[in-house]
């Protein structure tokens, strides 16, 4: 069918549409019907994406763990004093240096907020990291 949806619905209500022809089952390269069909393809695609994401997830966990281990809370509190302007500047500086996968910047931003660093700093870090990545990779 082609045209506007309104006209297609009117044709359907009037019974002017032709019945759908049966579709042949999917076949493999040898011409035999393929077992599993779309479900198996979906499972393969899902597994491929999952295993492709594993290095990213491992990087997120490792970076956040290193961030928490090597930057004590006392140091973060002296750097991010609660002043909205200075916290934004320091967060933007950290974000432009601490680039990587965008997921990492979100995780680090969340970690900062959980460590009672201001939301200004966390938002500036995440924004600067994403802008830096966009400028680097287009």
Task: Please indicate the percent range of residues in DSSP E strands (runs of 2 or more).
Answer: under 5%
User: Oligomeric form of this entry?
Assistant: single chain
Write the H/E string, N to C.
HHHHHH
Mean pLDDT over the full residue set: 78
Helix content: over 70%
Radius of gyration (CA) equals: 26 Å
Largest sheet: none
Annotation, overall tally of beta strands: 0
The rough form would be described as elongated
Count of discrete alpha- or pi-helical segments spanning 4 or more residues? 6
For the termini, the CA-CA separation is 40 Å
Instruction: Please mark out the parts with pLDDT under 50 across 5 or more consecutive residues, or reply none.
Output: none
**Strand-pairing-aware structural class:** mainly alpha
Tell me about this structure.
The protein has helices spanning 5-14, 37-70, 73-79, 84-97, 102-114, 119-137. The chain is mostly helical and 138 residues long. The chain has a domain at 42-137. Helix 4 (84-97) runs parallel beside helix 6 and helix 5 (102-114) runs antiparallel to helix 6 (119-137).
